[in-house]
Design a protein that fits this description.
The protein is built from 8 helices and 10 strands. It has about 260 residues and is of the alpha+beta class. The strands form 2 sheets. Strands 2-3-1-4-6-5 form a 6-stranded mixed β-sheet, with helices on both faces. Strands 8-9-7-10 form a 4-stranded antiparallel β-sheet. The longest helix has 19 residues. The mean pLDDT is about 95.
Amino acid sequence: MLECVVNISEGCDLETLRALDESVAGALLDRHTDPDHHRSVFTLVGQDAPRSLALAAVERLDLRTHRGAHPRIGVVDVVPFVALGGSTEADALAARDAYAEWSATALGVPCFVYGPERTLPDVRRHAFGELAPDHGGSAPHPTAGATAVGQRPVMVAYNLWLADPDLHAARSIARSLRCPEVRALGLAVGDHVQVSMNLIAPERVGPAEVFERVSARAQVARAELVGLIPASVLESIPRGRWVELDLDEERTIEARLDRLDLSRR
């Protein structure tokens, strides 16, 4: 089974979000929406649902009018494929390449691939400069921009909101956190600031560890899990900390897969 965690540059228009949900009915494990980031993260299963979602998003959204805290290169910004039980990294890599070729051909949206070749931050830094699209034309789609299409292991997206809205401090903390296991940005989000992280190896450095590292430097107002977390990572954290860390059993990949299977019966 393949998971695909599609990041869409829309987090405000409820009618549009309902239409996007409907485009992936039956394959949607979770949608996390943030209006300040102006972004939604759709956790899907399979290879068909990401294409249905992309079709709906490119039809409805226009990157030229998009304003949000999170960096983006397209309305369908990031499409990573992740191997779950019963599939392999090679399966995810093949799905990545098939999606990128389809997007460039069917939608006219250029795609940059990441995974074994390069990282997602590499794509963000160098797209349409030092780095040409791997699929599609040399210029962004006029309204949809481009897409970063990846193959990666399971990761955890995690935000920590600081009590003091000091952007300089958030950026300094983010720099101090960066390592092979953690990617981090300090972002201004409305009247607040957050340290926004991707925990690349959450079994080694997970939510509890980064919470401790950040809280040693600044008071944390609240934690926010973006999307889902593997059950094995959740179970490695003392249950008494789950509320503080914005975690619970219902928000694991495994729990949502079980729920999806039940809904299909």
